[in-house]
Design a protein that fits this description.
The protein is an alpha/beta fold and about 210 residues long. The chain folds into 2 domains: about 140 residues, Response regulator (Rossmann fold); about 60 residues, Winged helix-like DNA-binding domain superfamily/Winged helix DNA-binding domain (Arc Repressor Mutant, subunit A), CATH 1.10.10.10. It is built from 11 helices and 5 strands; from the N terminus they run αβαβαβαβαβαααααα. The chain has a 5-stranded parallel β-sheet with strand order 2-1-3-4-5, sandwiched between helices. Helix 3 runs parallel beside helix 4, helix 8 crosses helix 10 and helix 9 crosses helix 10. About 35% of the residues are buried.
Length: about 210
């Protein structure tokens, strides 16, 4: 774990009350070092690019710059920095837009301190943390009749086959000769294309379509 066994985290949220509460919660977490809390997303981006945190927790709707813009900017400039969206929005279209923008996790405001701390650890270990409500939302979306016109690229199909074999993201990245972050990016696209909310759903959807 980086930073003397602590993950460096920056929070971005224009809700001052929530920003303060979340900051106090994270300061008590033994595996987290809070290095910034910002209500202004534009100023936050400059600080994120300067400090290069391990994880950014960001709201989605903020004045001056949307959370989606922030996520895209951070992920393009700092591919090693993970971003977790932390928002009140639970609509499927917003969730999917946020994931497409580059978010690696999606939590609803109201998530407990323990859930957020665990999400930060999970995301740095290669996971994709989702609030239970968001996971259920994606599951419901995946239960609609499959779109047979959906196609995975050759790389995406190779990733799915390797996941089915039980390989880790790191092992798949080594086989594909790319970074683990590139694998994360491809997997997010696969989830979106197959309307999957979990690894099991992704594999089942791929099998239903004869992709693996």
């Amino acid at each position: 774990m980086p930073s003397a066994n602590k993950y460096k985290v920056i929070i971005v949220d224009d809700d001052a009350v929530h920003l303060d509460k979340l900051g106090r919660d994270l300061e008590h977490a033994p595996n987290i070092k809070l290095i910034g809390s910002h209500a202004d997303p534009k100023k936050a981006v400059a600080e994120i690019l300067r400090l290069k945190p391990d994880v950014v927790l960001s709201d989605i709707e903020m004045p001056g710059m949307s959370g989606l813009q922030l996520i895209q900017t951070v992920r393009q400039a700092l591919p090693d920095t993970e971003v977790i969206a932390l928002t009140v929005h639970g609509r499927q279209e917003i969730v999917l837009k946020t994931i497409k923008a580059g978010a690696n996790g999606y939590l609803l405001k109201g998530s407990g301190a323990e859930e957020i701390v665990n999400a930060i650890s999970m995301i740095k270990e290669g996971g994709a943390p989702l609030s239970p409500e968001i996971a259920r939302l994606l599951v419901r979306g995946s239960q609609t009749p499959p779109d047979e016109s959906v196609e995975l690229t050759g790389i995406e199909q190779g990733i799915v086959r390797n996941i089915e074999k039980g390989l880790s993201y790191k092992e798949i990245a080594s086989l594909q000769n790319v970074t683990t972050h590139a694998i994360h990016w491809h997997i997010k696209n696969i989830y979106i294309k197959l309307r999957a909310g979990s690894r099991k759903e992704m594999l089942n959807a791929a099998k239903e379509r004869g992709m693996i």
